[in-house]
Design the sequence.
């Protein structure tokens, strides 16, 4: 029976093939061609991505920050495919732009990029680039960007979100703050290595040498060490420096001032109560010193035993200093803390 059943199975199989619909062959052929095309497209994307990464790695081997114009920006940042994060500094470094903040931010950005390039964790998942306004005006227009410097993170997939723009006005542009922001956006932790700076050590050594030499020359007469006025001046200088925000500047590294790129107006006072400019701390220092001078003059007029007319003049000068500069200080305070109700003279 096995021998007799074999031909019947062959005849049955032949009948199945004979009755297969003729329209299925073009469909199978089309499906096969579609699979081949999709596979070729995927391979093409992989090759394009490999070429882009290879080019970026070559640029990174030469410079830690590579400059981009409009074409490079669209090719390596905007156009897919992309499996890497890109940190871009939008700046205006040309001398005619007179952007001192851009130069200061560029120095910190260079320190950060060098720290990443020479790090043992360096890989092809993060790159640093720069777009200068005079080299990529079309990029600024495309992103509706009207201020510089600006730091942005372009993720491997999707468009940048609001948090992908670094809050420079509030945080400052110190390399350490940039590294922390990058770690939050990319999970890449960069340890910042600053080049050695011996200027502070040299200045301290010169100061100690100067003081030591002065003490040696005056070794027979050291009464000036007990001078109350001298120590009072030193103490006031330290107080003015601390109350004006110099320590905050040292920690946060804010810009000296801000220049509006549209109208060229320079702002020396930051509009937020959470930040300040370096120039703002200098202004506050001068105002506090002027107010203190006025108080000293008022005290001198009240305690001295000189001519009455002279004492009256000193009193009026001291009062004028206190009222004028304290009113100026209050106006700055009101501009940063909106809604503050108190003022002496209205400078707004």
Sequence:
């Amino acid at each position: 029976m096995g021998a007799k059943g074999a031909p019947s199975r062959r005849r049955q199989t032949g009948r199945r093939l004979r009755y297969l619909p003729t329209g299925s062959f073009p469909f199978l052929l089309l499906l096969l061609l579609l699979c081949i095309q999709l596979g070729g497209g995927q391979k093409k994307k992989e090759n394009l991505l490999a070429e882009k990464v290879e080019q970026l790695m070559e640029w990174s081997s030469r410079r830690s920050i590579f400059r981009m114009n409009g074409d490079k920006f669209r090719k390596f940042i905007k156009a897919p495919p992309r499996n890497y994060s890109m940190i871009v500094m939008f700046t205006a470094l040309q001398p005619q732009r007179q952007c001192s903040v851009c130069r200061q931010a560029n120095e910190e950005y260079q320190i950060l990029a060098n720290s990443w390039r020479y790090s043992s964790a360096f890989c092809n998942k993060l790159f640093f680039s720069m777009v200068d306004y005079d080299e990529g005006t079309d990029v600024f227009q495309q992103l509706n960007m009207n201020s510089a410097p600006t730091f942005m993170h372009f993720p491997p997939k999707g468009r940048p979100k609001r948090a992908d723009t670094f809050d420079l006005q509030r945080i400052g542009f110190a390399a350490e703050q940039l590294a922390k922001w990058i770690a939050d956006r990319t999970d890449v932790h960069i340890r910042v290595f600053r080049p050695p700076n011996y200027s502070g050590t040299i200045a301290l050594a010169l100061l100690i040498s100067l003081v030591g030499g002065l003490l040696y020359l005056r070794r027979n007469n050291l009464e000036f060490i007990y001078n109350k006025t001298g120590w009072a001046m030193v103490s006031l200088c330290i107080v003015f420096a601390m109350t004006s925000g110099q320590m905050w500047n040292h920690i946060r590294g804010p810009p000296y001032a801000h220049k509006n790129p549209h109208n060229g107006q320079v702002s020396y006072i930051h509009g937020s109560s959470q930040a300040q400019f370096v120039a703002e701390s200098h202004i506050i220092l001068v105002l506090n010193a002027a107010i203190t001078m006025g108080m000293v003059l008022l005290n001198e007029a009240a305690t001295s035993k000189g001519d009455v007319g002279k004492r009256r003049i000193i009193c009026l000068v001291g009062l004028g200093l206190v009222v004028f500069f304290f009113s100026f200080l209050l106006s700055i305070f009101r501009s940063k803390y909106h809604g503050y109700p108190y003022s002496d003279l209205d400078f707004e």
